[in-house]
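subagent[fold] <- orchestrator: predict structure for attached chain, return C-alpha cells only, no commentary.
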Amino acid sequence: HVAFVIDGNRCGLHVRNGVAVPSNGAGAHAVAQLSRDTLVNVLSGRVAWSQAARNGDITVTGDSHGLDIVRKAFDVEGLRS
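subagent[fold] -> orchestrator:
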C-alpha cells in the first residue's frame, strides 16, 4: 500500500495480485510527496521519477523499495526509470 501527497492532497494505491485499488492512502507503507507539475512531468515522460527524486522534487518516506516496486509495475516510462 503506497500513498501519494500531491500538492497537499493525499491518495493511495493498494496493490495486490496485479490489481491496483485506489485508496485514501491511510496506513500506507510508503508515502511520496510531490507537486502536480512534477507528477505531470513524470507521467508525460519529460522527467524520470528517479531524476525528479534526485532533484528533490519527490520525497519518499517509509518503504521506498516497496514504492519502487509498485511504480515500476506500471507501463509508464517516467515511472519505470
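orchestrator: received. Logging for downstream: The chain has a mean pLDDT of 96. The longest strand covers residues 9-16.
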